[in-house]
Amino acid sequence: MIRFVSAAALLASVFVVVSVAQQRGTFTVGTATAARGHKATGTIEVPAGVDAGLSIPVAVFHGAKPGPVLALVAGAHGTEYTSIIALEKLIATLNPAEISGTVIIVPLINIQSFEQKVPHLNPVDRKSMNRWYPGKMDGTQTDRASFLITKQVVEQCDHLIDLHGGDLDESLRPYSYWTKTGNEKQDQISREMVLAFGLDHIIISTDRPKDPQASRYLENTATTRGKPSLTAEAGHAGTIEPEDVDALVRGCLSVMRYLEMVPGAPEVVRSPVWIDRVLTITSDEGGLFYPRVKRGEYVAKGMSIGHVTDFFGRKVFEARAPAAGVVLYICSVPSMTKGGTIANVGVVRTGS
Ligand SMILES: [Zn+2]
Q1: Is the pLDDT of residue 70 over 70?
Q2: Is the pLDDT of residue 17 over 90?
Q3: How far away, in angstroms, is 257 Cα from ligand 1 center?
Q4: What is the pLDDT of residue 6?
Q5: Who surrounds ion ligand 1 at CB < 5 A?
Q6: Which of 108, 116, 186, 251 is least enclosed by beta carbons within 10 angstroms?
């Protein structure tokens, strides 16, 4: 069962985290400075170091009225297009005159991944741009970008939503992550945020690093700094389906309503499917992958979810579900390497 706190308690918890930054007449991220009630766009300039520099686009909506600072970020993986498009839409539609608080939107971090159509990694330094937080200035491009995002986005916000989706080779069903830190108050707010986001499959994440200086992931960088946050994923395999884009746009707007940054009630998930554990199935052999199940399908323990053949058509590996659960994503292309990911299966929590 899902329990909700009273409106009064909720209001108190939300206003406690309103940062002093909201008292300012202007709000600056990178080269974008917005006066109260206005929008500004600009870039976070990552200077050249051991490799090339990078200009990361950023939009700032400094609301007419005070309220929390919410950061919306996408494109750490530049070919997870749905999440990037969703934030482009929000940049075009949010009206700072109607906002209580401030919204920072970073729609695309990994520009070279986007331009060169390279999944998972920043092709400049071969690093995932969601694994090297909080970053450092004397590292490669990903390290420097991560450091500046930590300083300019994470440290200036009260809440953060990191958007992802299935990458070019991932057929993914939408889901979000709720990070459980052990801090009851923070966890309650982030839980309500994730329910307000509206995706009905929610992974309970308990294994993220606790050390803010070794936070690795973007959302975890905010979470370990005491800022209730979430990660959400929708979109799959290079497609831009309207329902996936809408799910992310609606989710961000619904969380804004939960945080009372815009009027209206959030659309809260009524029957969430909580996922306790995520099991990754990898291939023992390289070759051609043939899936047998689709994203979102429920599988029984031991059931075949696909197989791998060598380049002569001989079956060399049968992939089986290690436990009963839901296929969160499955490899959407034939290319398979030894040790490559075939699928992620989520084990659904039973009981309350
Ligand atoms: Zn991603």
Answers
A1: yes
A2: no
A3: 25
A4: 41
A5: 77, 80, 164
A6: 116
Cα(165) to centroid of ligand 1, in Å? 6
How many angstroms is it from 312 CA to the middle of ligand 1?
A: 33
pLDDT tens across 109-119, in order?
Answer: 999 999 999 99
Residue tagged 């009225």 (tokens): 65
Q: How far is the CA of 79 from the centre of ligand 1 (A)?
A: 8
Q: Which two tokens stand for residue 304?
A: 């075949």
Q: How many residues does the chain have?
A: 352
E strand intervals along the chain: 26-29, 32-35, 38-46, 54-62, 65-73, 100-106, 159-164, 170-172, 175-179, 201-205, 230-233, 273-282, 287-291, 298-299, 304-309, 315-320, 325-331, 335-336, 341-348
**HSE (side-chain half, CA atoms, 13 Å) at 290:** 12
Write out the two tokens for 268. 């809260």
Cα 215 to middle of ligand 1, angstroms? 16
pLDDT digits (tens, 9 = 90+) for 266-301: 999 999 999 999 999 999 999 999 999 999 999 999
pLDDT tens track for 176-198: 999 999 999 999 999 999 999 99
What distance in angstroms lies between residue 179's CA and the mean position of ligand 1's atoms? 16
